[in-house]
Specification:
alpha/beta
């Protein structure tokens, strides 16, 4: 495990080796190809992906006074769709002693745009395969993506009885989680200063993490973060939304009972600053990073493209 003080944005994390690895094109679960590529030894079990360059018309945007305004440019213009981007990964220990926690950093190698993104997981934690795959895809588009362990090694386990969920959640100290997230953001900012980069960070969250995005940005007040994306955030605190100083893209489905559309619209209005609400008709909770059907997978690709353009416009262009 790498020490948190080791500069990671200024040098390659691990020596790369050339291997044959069977990977899905564009991180799809169905169409597989065999590529010869150079990958980090730390990522031999991970997927290599080329981000989907599909264009789309936004399916359903609540609040007709606004159009979904992020640009539809191809972020990967000039890239070969059949070429998989190289991403390095390393596990970190951030903090000291009892205040330390694990995190995983995905770092784009060839197309690194010098920008960092903090990704907050759902209740299944930072080691969950769906979260890791999504973080890897974001890194493929050029970012340095840090995924902290929000639950200190005690995430919700899928096969546990559902009636134990509230008991598990009550055991997750919200003050400790907030402190860890702030420490992860500070670590990233410090690394960027060491690398001579002054760009703002981005933040993405799913479900539990999507709810945390609002709290994080409200505390930050524009210090570290320049933009946010919340995927179907749960238990969002609308009372602090007015303290958020940066635009947030909210992505959800209109069948998601855990993230009511009315709540998103209310929070979006309180934040302002060019924030947007993007709703997918017929979709429930988790469709963007845990699609369970071809139809959900198609909308997941559209949601990813929307997020990618949002980050590009807010962090890379600006």
């Amino acid at each position: 495990m790498a020490a948190a003080s080791t500069p990671l944005f200024t040098a390659s994390i691990q020596r790369s080796i050339s291997v044959f690895i069977k990977v899905p094109l564009r991180c799809h679960r169905s169409h597989h190809h065999l590529y010869q590529t150079s990958v980090s030894p730390l990522l031999l079990s991970s997927k290599i992906c080329t981000p989907n360059r599909q264009r789309f018309s936004p399916p359903f945007v609540r609040n007709p006074a606004f159009k979904f305004c992020c640009s539809q440019v191809d972020v990967e213009d000039g890239a070969d769709d059949d070429v998989c981007e190289l991403v390095n990964g390393v596990e970190l220990l951030i903090g000291d002693g009892d205040d330390s926690f694990r995190a995983y950093l995905f770092k784009a190698v060839k197309n690194n745009n010098g920008t960092g993104v903090l990704l907050l997981s759902d209740v299944f934690g930072f080691e969950d395969s769906s979260t890791r795959e999504f973080a890897y895809r974001v890194a493929c588009t050029g970012y340095n993506v840090l995924v902290p362990d929000l639950f200190r090694g005690n995430p919700w386990v899928k096969d546990q009885p559902k009636d134990l969920f509230e008991q598990w959640r009550a055991g997750q100290n919200p003050e400790r989680i907030s402190k860890d997230i702030d420490a992860a953001a500070k670590w990233m900012a410090t690394e960027f200063i060491a690398a001579g980069i002054s760009k703002k960070l981005g933040i993405i969250g799913f479900c539990f993490g999507g709810g945390q995005v609002i709290d994080v940005l409200a505390r930050d007040e524009g210090s570290y973060f320049g933009i946010g994306v919340s995927f179907y955030g749960t238990r969002m605190n609308s009372s602090v939304a007015a303290n958020v100083k940066v635009p947030v893209l909210f992505i959800s489905g209109d069948n998601d009972t855990l993230c009511p559309v009315s709540n998103l619209i209310d929070i979006e209005k309180k934040i302002g600053n060019g924030s947007r609400v993007l709703i997918f008709e017929g979709r429930g909770h988790g469709f963007a990073h845990r699609p369970e059907s071809p139809e959900e997978d198609e909308d997941a690709e559209k949601a990813f493209a929307a997020m990618r353009n949002w980050l590009h416009d807010g962090l890379v262009v600006n």
